[in-house]
Amino acid sequence: MHWLVLIASGMLEAVWATALGASEKFKKTAPTIVFFIAMIASMAGLAYAMREIPTGTAYAVWVGIGAVLTVAIAMIRGEEKATTARILLLLGIVACVIGLKVVA
């Protein structure tokens, strides 16, 4: 259960990071609201997961999921280039996150 919450929290990290950029320095209301709600939920989920998962592992998985999804969203939106090298590097992060789960 803690791993599922951690994965969802990592996904919410991508939501709040994307919303933060869309808020244009908190000038746009809707993305600003999404940012705060997703950030609070993401942090709460991370804190919950850390009850059973070691801090370093939980944080690395949370950041990895959030970072990969944030870049993927930007690529899908056309805000960042989706080059072969970038995609392979992102897949490397995914492999490392999976590896942390396997050895935890």
Automatic annotation (TrEMBL):
**Membrane-spanning residues:** 33-50, 57-77, 83-103
Q: Give the domain of life.
A: Bacteria
Subcellular localization: Cell membrane
Membrane topology, as annotated, equals: Multi-pass membrane protein
The answer, when asked if Kinase is one of the entry's keywords, is no
Main location (coarse class): membrane
Which Pfam families is this protein grouped with? Answer: Multi_Drug_Res
Q: Which InterPro entries match?
A: EmrE-like (IPR037185), Small_drug/metabolite_transptr (IPR000390), Small_multidrug_res (IPR045324)
Q: Which UniProt keywords apply?
A: Cell membrane, Membrane, Transmembrane, Transmembrane helix, Transport
Q: Does the keyword Translocase apply?
A: no
User: Hey, which family's this protein in?
Assistant: Belongs to the drug/metabolite transporter (DMT) superfamily. Small multidrug resistance (SMR) (TC 2.A.7.1) family.
Identify this protein by name. Answer: DMT family transporter
What species was this sequence derived from? Populibacterium corticicola
Q: What is the lineage of its organism?
A: Bacteria, Bacillati, Actinomycetota, Actinomycetes, Micrococcales
